[in-house]
Amino acid sequence: MTAPTNIATGLARIGSFIRAEQWRDSDVSGLTPTQAQILIHLAQRGPARVTAVAEEIAVTQPTASDSVAALVRKGLIEKRPDPDDARAVSLHPTRKGKRAADALTLWPDALLAAADTLAPEEQAAFLKGLTKMIRTLQSDGAIPVQRMCATCSFFRPNVHADPAKPHHCAFVDAAFGDASLRLYCGDHVEADTEEGDRNWRRFTSHASAE
Ligand code: SF4
């Protein structure tokens, strides 16, 4: 097997484990994995339109709409007029929905514990590799744009001489290393194409500070 095939096999194994755990949890919560993901998303990140939710959790809009309808029927979320567009609605978790979301976990404890067994430099290399793979999938149009450092207008890759913290986040004005690369960040603002491409070249070239 080639290295890419081995990597794909490993990711698929982990994906299968996550899906199995999510379906096991659904026996307890009464929510499908997609419904649970939407409820957690709204509880943690605030009200959103269904199109935005579908993009965030990487499902089609009809799939998200079906899950939203089920969550509304269960009294876990409600639709309210969107303050920015009178013709649109945004989804809000109800009090019951917030309590239900608190009881749900996004990631299996066993998976987090396994990731925690990696040495700090292994975690940093893993995150950098995942960032590269996800960004490539985005560029190919295979997945929607993720709210991650690599596509963020606040990202300043490889601008510091400190090899432990070569990057800079202009939003919080702080240096950080590969182990702190975010694959989801609520403060993300998508960089324009030119800025994003420039950042990407700098990130992948291992350039040191000028
Ligand atoms: S705002 Fe968030 S996504 Fe953007 S560079 Fe800072 S930490 Fe990364």
Computed over alpha carbons, the radius of gyration is 19 Å
CATH fold naming of the largest domain: Arc Repressor Mutant, subunit A
Q: Major beta sheet, specifics? A: 3 strands, antiparallel
Shape: globular
The level of helicity is 40-55%
Bound ligand species? iron/sulfur cluster
CATH 2nd-level architecture of the largest domain: Orthogonal Bundle
Instruction: Note the run of SSEs as H and E.
Output: HHHHEEHHHEEEH
**Head-to-tail CA distance between termini:** 41 Å
Q: Tell me the fraction of residues in β-strands, as a range.
A: 5-15%
Total strand count, please? 5
Describe the structure.
- The chain contains 8 helices and 5 strands.
- By secondary structure, it is mainly alpha-helical.
- Strands 3-4-5 form a 3-stranded antiparallel β-sheet, with no helix packed on it.
- Helix 2 (33-45) packs across helix 4, helix 2 packs across helix 5 and helix 3 packs across helix 4.
- The longest helix is centred in the N-terminal third of the chain and has 27 residues, at 3-29.
- The mean pLDDT is 91.
- Bound molecules: iron/sulfur cluster.
- The site of iron/sulfur cluster (SF4) has 10 residues, from loops.
